[in-house]
Every structure is written in C-alpha cells, then in structure tokens.
C-alpha cells in the first residue's frame, strides 16, 4: 500500500523542518516501503527562512484515510501577526482529519493545526520557546511541555526543528514497524531513534549556556567518560586547578557540582535505554552505577512534581 505524505508549506519555512521528515520517508522508500511525497502551498513559490525558494503545487492531491499531511514550522515572528494559513487551507486540514486521515506538525507548524481547530481538546507540543505563546492562543488545547512529540486522536505534534526527524521516524514505525524505522535511522546516521516522551533539551545542552572555559573543559571530560568513576581530584588535576577552585567555578557556571552533573547525565542516558526496552538493572550497569538502587532513587527524585 502506498501512503501519500503531503507537506503543507508556509512562508518563512524552516528548511530542516521540511527536509528532515522528507528524508525519513524518502529513505523508507529506498528500503522498499511505499510513500509518495508531495508539497502543497497557497502560492507556487515559498521563500524559506534560510533564503532558498522552494516550489510547491497549489492544487491539493486526493488524500484518503491512510494518508498524511505534515505542516513543517516557520520562522516565528513576535508579536504574532495572525494565522499563517488561510480559511480554505484550514478547512482542508479539518476535512482530511474528519475523513480519517492523520495530520502532523513540526515546531511552529502546530499553529496551523490550531488555526484549523485541530488542537482543541487535544494534547499538543511545540518548540519550548513557543509553548507558552501557543498555549495562550489555543486555550482549549492541552499543552504538554518539554517532550519531543505527542499523538492525540490522529493529531501528532512535535517540538523544534530537528525533532521533525523523530516525528517522522515515529510515523514510519507506526506504519511499517520499529525494525523499518531503525533501518531508516541507520541509513540516515541518526544517533538514536528517540521516544516522544524524551526531553527536548538534553542535560549536556541545558547546562552549557555559560561562558566558563574551565567548566566547559570539565564537562567535556565528564561527557566523554560519564560511565566511569571520576574523582574530583583527577578532574582538577586534568584542568590544572585545585579541587576547591574547580567546585566553586563549576557550581557558579552550571548550578551543579561535577558529581551531580555526572549523575544527571547518567540518569538521562539510563532513561533513554529504559525507554527502548532495557531493564533498570541493565541500564544502571551500562551507565556506570554499581547497582540499580542509586538509579531508582534518582529516578524517583526526578519524578516528584516541582513545588509551587
């Protein structure tokens, strides 16, 4: 069976929002699966946010219940100047979903689904920088923060830009099975096929927004050997400072001690393994814990709701 994947393009389109998912379905075709790709828009030429024009067709293809419409994201302007898609396009999205079809969005593309009324009463996600704004625009929708993608009643929304690849992998896995999605990931040299509940920002990125060269060098050491037993004295020696200086500078830059940073990194790696079927005990050993008790304690702490 051939599944038609129609990409709805909008002005200021982000290239990776389009190219990432398109590459996933194209690679699946190379592996013998059946996807037909087309590109529709309200005008024949769309200028992307990166300055490259792309061509689209203004006439929509005939779509059935097994087919898919994906809305890639665009460069978001503040304040929002109104809907990016017109009433006729919004109606086409509603009609496709009402006829049993699936609709999906990447990043700010969720705004188009909101304009079409497809987020009302449903869970959705988007780029973490846009989450609050879109939640305010669509109060009847249920925002899920800081996840890669969410599916609710054939409406699938994903986080920012590169997460469109994860979204497309998820859709391929749903149609063709996880083995095919894994083969696509290998062909695309994707590091890992991530589950939807995984965080948008990794521990590595979340604690790298500082200007301390010393802390960056220590983080490089921990990132490379997070599963090893790393002594504070060894880290301090490798970067040429005292243990006291290392701790003071690292905490000021990241808000964490080196040990706590390593623990969070191990926890994130373990959660990824568990999400893909590894037992807690095996995941604990793989990421460097001597047994699963410490991992269970860390997971329990991370699951507690924040106060206030």
Number of strands: 10
Strand share of the residues? 5-15%
Q: How would you classify the quaternary structure?
A: single chain
CATH class of the largest domain: Alpha Beta
Query: Taking Cα atoms only, what radius of gyration do you get, to the nearest Å?
Result: 22 Å
Distance between the termini: 51 Å
CATH fold-level label of the largest domain: Rossmann fold
**Strand order across the biggest sheet?**
2-1-5-6-10-9
Fraction of helical residues: 40-55%
How many strands, which pairing sense, and closed or not: the largest β-sheet? 6 strands, mixed
**Structurally, how many domains make up the residues?**
2
User: What is the SS-derived class?
Assistant: alpha/beta
Examine the secondary-structure arrangement and name the CATH architecture of the largest domain: 3-Layer(aba) Sandwich
- Spell out the helices and strands N to C: EHEEEEHEHEHEEEHHHHHHHHH
Low-pLDDT segments: 196-200, 304-308
Organism: Nocardioides panzhihuensis
Domain HTH araC/xylS-type: 216-308
InterPro entries: Class_I_gatase-like, DJ-1/PfpI, Homeodomain-like_sf, HTH_AraC, INH-QAR
GO molecular function: DNA-binding transcription factor activity; sequence-specific DNA binding
